[in-house]
From TrEMBL, chains A, B:
One of its GO terms (molecular function) is transcription cis-regulatory region binding. Residues 198-221 are annotated as: Disordered. Keywords: DNA-binding, Transcription, Transcription regulation. Signal peptide: none annotated. Residues 41-60 bind DNA. The keyword Translocase does not apply. It comes from Streptomyces silvensis. This is TetR family transcriptional regulator. SUPFAM superfamilies: Homeodomain-like (SSF46689), Tetracyclin repressor-like, C-terminal domain (SSF48498). Residues 203-221 have a biased composition (Basic and acidic residues). Residues 18-78 form the HTH tetR-type domain.
Amino acid sequence: MTDPLASPPDRRPGGRTARVRAQVLDAVRAELAERGHEGLTMEGVATRAGVHRATVYRRWRDVGGLLVDVITAAGEIDWQPPDTGSLPGDLTALNEEIQQSLVVQPSFALALMAASFHSEQAARAQTRLWTDRYAQCEVLVERAVERGELPAPHPDARSLLVAATAPIYHQLVLLRAGPDPRLPRRAARAAVLAAAAGAFRAPRQDREESDREQSDREESA
Amino acid sequence: MTDPLASPPDRRPGGRTARVRAQVLDAVRAELAERGHEGLTMEGVATRAGVHRATVYRRWRDVGGLLVDVITAAGEIDWQPPDTGSLPGDLTALNEEIQQSLVVQPSFALALMAASFHSEQAARAQTRLWTDRYAQCEVLVERAVERGELPAPHPDARSLLVAATAPIYHQLVLLRAGPDPRLPRRAARAAVLAAAAGAFRAPRQDREESDREQSDREESA
C-alpha cells in the first residue's frame, strides 16, 4: 500500500538523536535492499551509518528492533492516497504505485515482506502499517459513494480495497510473474465492476443475503 | 492452489529408491513445518528420515535440492479441482482448500513460501507448481461457460482464477489476518460478479475496449 523506499521526512535539523536515527534507518534500508534481511547485522548497519556500534545496540537492541523501526518510519511518511476523480482511476493509480514498489531493483518492500516471515516483531509492525494504509485508502471508496459511482447498499471499503490490490501482490510476490503494465488497471476495473454488481457488502448485509438465499432455496425445495 | 501438506502417492512398494525418497521427503516436510526453512539441514533430514547422510548428499546435494524435490512431489499428487456444479461453488471450495492449507498449524504451504524468498531454486519450483495448478483450474471456467454461467465474450480464465484466490493469500500470508470463514465465499462471489459484468477479458478484447473508450472520450471532448 505504500512505497516504503521513500525516506521518512528529513528530521535531521531536529538534533543529534533524530540525525542518528535517520542515518541508521537509511543504512538499514540500504543493507536490506542489497543483502536481504538475512544479511542484516548490527555491525553492518553501524559501519554503514557511521554510528558507534554501542549506540546502535543501546537504541535498537537487535536486528528485530531495527526492522520494526524502519517499518514504523515508513508509516511516518506523509503518504496520501491518489485522488484522480474516479474510483477506477484512484485504484489504478494505487496499484501502479504498489507495482512500482515491488518491481524496483532492489525492492525494499519485498525485502521487508521476506523479513516478516522470520521476525514476529517485523511481521506485527508490517501488519500495523498495512492496516493504517488500508484505513487511509477508505476515503477512495467514500468519495466514490459521494460521486454516485457505487450504488447503495455501499460496499465494505476494506474488502473492496483488498480485492483491488491483492492480485498485484499475488502476481509479483507469490507467483513471481513479471510486471504486467495492464494489471493495475485490470485489477482495479474488476474490483469496481464487482462492487457495482453488489460484491463486498458489509458482513451484516452479506449475512442477510445469505439467509435470504437460504430461505429462497427452502421455498423452492 | 494446492494443499502441499498432503503426501505424494505412496510409492513405497516401488523399491528401495522410491522408499528412500518417500522417507526423506516426509522428513523435509516435517522439519520445514516445525522449524521453517532456516532450520532445515541435510543432517537433520537424514537423521529424521533414518537414511544415511551420504545418500542424502548424493541424491539431493543441498538444502535447495531438497526444497525443489518436495515441491516437485507436491506437483505429483493426483490433485483434482473441485466440481460442485456451479462456478461460485467451485471457487468457494477452491478458496476453502487454500485457506485450510494456510491456517493449519504448522503450515507446510507457508513454510514453502517463506523458503522461496531465500532460495531461487525453490522459488522457481514453486512458480512451476502454481502455474500447473492454475492451468488445471481453468476447467472450472470452461465448465461455467458451457453451463451458460458467464456471458460472451468469455473471460480470461487465469485472470479470473487469480482474482478469486488472491484475497485469501493476501489476507493470510501478507496481511496476517486471522482466517475469516466467510472470505472464501465472498472472494469467489466477487470474482464471479466481476466476470459476469465483463471483467477479465482476454488482453486483445481489453485493448479493443480501451481503444473504444479512448475514441468515445475524444468524440465527447
